[in-house]
């Protein structure tokens, strides 16, 4: 069995070592034009030339949860596309989102600023019931985030394409219930995949439907958010601010207004990092299962784009 590794911005050596250790019978190598045909591919944002040449692949394993970069390419039609499921990302996402929610709810940015200025100031405690959190996307990551937020006793709403029942979460589904979901939420967490249906979904109209003093946490993809609409709604006072981990252009361009905005907190696409050893173990297990002809979870539905 041959495995071809084609991941942009990734040091291949530790991945090759890990994959060879987990699958000792496999020949694992970095893709270069002209290398022999492989059975499986391990990829992150590969070039189109990779699939044009490796058109016989049986399985394509994405070393991330989001497959939007892959979905823009022409893929071999017989290849099964598999994305990472959790692999250590869900707990990271839960801790990141909970800290962003709590930081806003508890006025911790204001306290940090006061401390730097030598001010011993108190802010009035807020009612948790006034801060319902809406989680967009109740998949592997969104469901874990919704569960973690409940530990801090925030009211939690969830929105997904198909109806989902999660204990303690007020569920909404489909386009028909989207406006009700937004109107029931003050803080909004985006954990949707980027697809044609969800591109620009965080815009002036949708964010304008959040409860006044709304707060946006985007940890999915930059192209979900219309940057200028977010800034306009913060400027108008309808939104209190945002925590953003993902951007239309990454790295965020130096002249982008998000860098200096006092009400926008940014991090460099780091809310849930791909963990190498967990990911290799998951991918190796799935390649072995495929070799044995067993069913797999985490298969991407290319028609729906996630
Ligand atoms: P999943 O595929 O497990 O979950 C996706 C969820 O979104 C599902 O609940 C799905 O609904 C819902 N959904 C999809 N399309 C729509 C739609 N049109 N309307 C309403 N709901 C919709 O994905 P994960 O939870 O594993 O990952 C989510 C995203 O998080 C990734 O696609 C990626 O972009 C991002 N991500 C970001 C990271 C970072 O570091 N910033 C790290 C990892 C991932 P249904 O349940 O009905 O299918
Ligand atoms: C992912 C990511 O999709 O890192 O896994 O953004």
What does this structure look like?
It contains 10 helices and 12 strands. It has helices at 12-22, 48-53, 68-71, 89-105, 108-116, 140-151, 178-183, 204-208, 227-235, 276-291, and strands at 2-7, 27-30, 40-44, 59-62, 80-82, 133-136, 156-160, 169-173, 187-190, 214-218, 239-244, 264-266. The strands form 2 sheets. It has a 7-stranded parallel β-sheet with strand order 8-7-6-9-10-11-12. A 5-stranded parallel β-sheet has the order 2-1-3-4-5, covered by helices on one side. Strand 6, helix 6 (140-151) and strand 7 form a beta-alpha-beta unit. Helix 1 packs across helix 10 (276-291) and helix 4 (89-105) crosses helix 6 (140-151). The longest helix has 17 residues, at 89-105. The relative contact order is 0.14.
Share of helical residues: 25-40%
Strand order of the largest sheet: 8-7-6-9-10-11-12
Query: Would you tell me the overall average pLDDT?
Result: 98
Structural class: alpha/beta
Total helical elements: 10
Q: What is the terminal-to-terminal distance?
A: 27 Å
What characteristics describe this protein?
five-stranded parallel sheet, 306 residues, alpha/beta, binds NADPH dihydro-nicotinamide-adenine-dinucleotide phosphate, 10 helices, binds oxalic acid
How are the secondary structure elements laid out?
Blueprint: E1 2-7, H1 12-22, E2 27-30, E3 40-44, H2 48-53, E4 59-62, H3 68-71, E5 80-82, H4 89-105, H5 108-116, E6 133-136, H6 140-151, E7 156-160, E8 169-173, H7 178-183, E9 187-190, H8 204-208, E10 214-218, H9 227-235, E11 239-244, E12 264-266, H10 276-291
Parallel strand pairs: 1-2, 1-3, 3-4, 4-5, 6-7, 6-9, 7-8, 9-10, 10-11, 11-12
Helix pairs in contact: 1-10, 4-6
The site of NADPH dihydro-nicotinamide-adenine-dinucleotide phosphate has 30 residues, from helix 6 and strand 7.
């Amino acid at each position: 069995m041959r495995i071809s590794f084609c991941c942009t911005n990734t040091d291949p050596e530790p991945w090759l070592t890990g994959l060879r250790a987990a699958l000792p019978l496999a020949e694992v190598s970095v893709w270069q034009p002209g290398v022999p045909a492989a059975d499986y591919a391990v990829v992150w944002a590969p070039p189109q030339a990779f699939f044009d040449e490796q058109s016989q692949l049986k399985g394509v394993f994405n070393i991330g949860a989001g497959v939007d970069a892959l979905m823009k390419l022409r893929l071999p039609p017989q290849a099964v596309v598999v994305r990472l499921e959790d692999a250590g990302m869900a707990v990271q996402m839960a801790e990141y989102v909970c800290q962003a929610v709590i930081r806003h709810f508890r006025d911790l940015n204001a306290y940090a600023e006061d401390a730097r200025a030598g001010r011993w100031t108190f802010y009035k405690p807020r009612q948790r019931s006034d801060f319902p959190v809406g989680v967009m996307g109740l998949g592997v990551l969104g469901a874990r985030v919704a569960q973690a937020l409940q530990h801090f006793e925030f009211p939690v709403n969830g929105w997904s394409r198909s109806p989902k029942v999660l204990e303690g979460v007020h569920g909404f589904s489909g386009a028909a219930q989207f406006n009700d979901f937004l109107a029931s939420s003050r803080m909004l967490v985006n954990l949707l995949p980027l697809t044609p249906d969800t591109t620009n979904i965080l815009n002036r109209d949708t964010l304008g439907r959040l409860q006044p003093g709304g707060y946006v946490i985007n940890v999915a993809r930059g192209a979900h958010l219309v940057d200028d609409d977010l800034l306009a709604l913060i400027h108008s006072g309808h939104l209190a601010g945002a925590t953003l981990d993902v951007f239309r252009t990454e790295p965020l361009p130096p002249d982008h207004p998000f860098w200096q905005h006092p009400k926008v907190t940014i991090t460099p696409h780091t809310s849930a990092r791909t963990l190498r050893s967990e990911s290799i173990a998951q991918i190796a297990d799935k390649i072995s299962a495929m070799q044995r002809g067993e069913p797999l979870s985490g298969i991407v539905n290319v028609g729906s784009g996630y």
